[in-house]
Write a structure and sequence with these properties.
2 domains; Jelly Rolls; seven-stranded antiparallel β-sheet; 4 helices; eight-stranded antiparallel β-sheet; 12% helix; globular; mainly beta
Length: 334
Amino acid sequence: MFTGLSQRVTRPGILLLGCVALAAVQVAPLRAQPVTNGLRFVLQADGLTGYANGDPVAAWPDLSGQGLDVSQGNAAQRPTYISGALNGLPVVRFDGGDWLTRDNVVGSLLTSTNQATAYVVVKQIGSDPYNTTLFWGTPTNRLLIHTTWGDWLSFQHGNAESGGGGGVSWWQPAGWDDQWHVVEFVRNGPNWDCAVGGAGQGRGNAADTPEINETRTLWICNDQWGNTHSGDLAELLIYDRALTRDERGQVAAYLGTKYALPIAPSVLADMNCDGAVNFDDINPFVLALSGVAGYYESLPGCNLLNGDVDCDGAVTFDDIGGFVACLSGDCHCP
């Protein structure tokens, strides 16, 4: 289930402090990414070196090549480095009272006007329903990720105030609390998709776009309203474009393998998500063509984009010929 999302100040504000890095840290090289085209911001906990278990993290380097490092100048508000927490790899733990920022970030360094893709490897600790992962912008112009907000996964890209049309949210899947998840958000024009562990969570539609020429503060695990995060963060990837279906599969598989987390298989033309392509996929494919909401209501957890056999980012009548070819065993992106 998904819906458009409007957000105003709903929690007590926390004093927001500007910060600068107080100490230089060594940075490990960027681990091999399967898709680097459009990759604009990268945080990897295993990209931090020189930290021991339990150390406060003063600065977390951006490994995208743009150098958008985030930091915390107040020692009492620094997150904690936790070694060997996920598949033998470290994570960064936020306790709801710590965060990282970078001032003077131009929006175009992070995103484009009407396309964006984000991946978050995250664990929410406990049942706190208000967890901000990333925020850039203002109340009426923002790039924002909540995992979660009022138990909704939220992706905002534009004006998400009431009636603004710049955000979509999806109800968190079962077993969310205290578990690790690979969360994927994609905006491609008016179409917004979310997947958790490779399982589609539905498609929303919203039209507003961000003003990417503005210069604002970039926040990690906080926003300008004082909504923070209680949990662990292992990796965060931001792309300035909508990744194709195949690219999304590559990135999800990379993250699943790296962190030993389950990723639902994505099989081209497998519309009922049974792992095979056969005549049983015909009716679900027709349903996808008839309406996105009906498809996800009938097949929750399936990924509608399995029907995007021409790999243009949408399931339309242009996919019919390719779908028929898949039924005959000739199944591939153009």
